[in-house]
Amino acid sequence: MLIRLLLLFSLLSSSPAIGKGIAAPIGLELGKARCSDVERRLPKVGLKRGSSAWSHGPTLESGNVRLLEVEGLENVLAVCAKDDGRMLALALTFSKGGVSASNVIQTARQLDAKYTSVSRDLPHVGDATAQWSAANGAIELQAPHMSFSFLVIYWTEEGQQAYRRFRDVESRRQETKKGRQSVTRPLLQVAHAHCLAGATSATASETAIGEAVTLCEPAWLEAFFPSAPPVLRQFALGVPADHAQVDR
User: Fold this and answer.
1) What's the rounded Cα separation, in Å, for the pair 85 and 33?
2) Does the pTM of the predicted model rise above 0.85?
3) Cα 91 to the chain's mean position, in Å?
């Protein structure tokens, strides 16, 4: 057990040669390591390549981590920069270690010993989170209550800022989408009724109909109103009003 704890500590901390307080998980120093270094560190078998939505750069992921000989480690995911391949974030997935989640507490203690604690919320029951600062980045622990695993994420400052910007943009986009969906159905019902009557501007303006329809994807419109006339589908496809053929 002691050997396993020492292996875990060596994974989560940096080597003495790198320097005190400098994060270098699995020997990959934040801010200096590149995707090519990650690739050399991980076994070739089971290595998956992808791309990141927030960094626009490559990712490397592997669940084949047995050779790293780290107790509880299940998966490694590296996110790199698009321009020079620098590693912006490294996410390590660990097993919680049973119902008691002993690995979560032990990992937090090991990180406390190496880095500066910023925040911590580690209840016996419920979601657990904690953050630390390092000389070259930040470390974040996420342990959802209903999961058998937990994450330790190492961030460079650049990577953390890029991810937060992406998350904020996505959050606003989702809120906008929800707002549009809440008004789409009644507006489309009005537009559909008037188009079927051949009166696109009698009691509802053509602009209003166009605005209603453009809130939907053409495929969804077709499924929602299979009898919709061409004018609705043309609006949905973004065809200008003066080019649309209105059914009479």
Assistant:
1) 9
2) no
3) 12
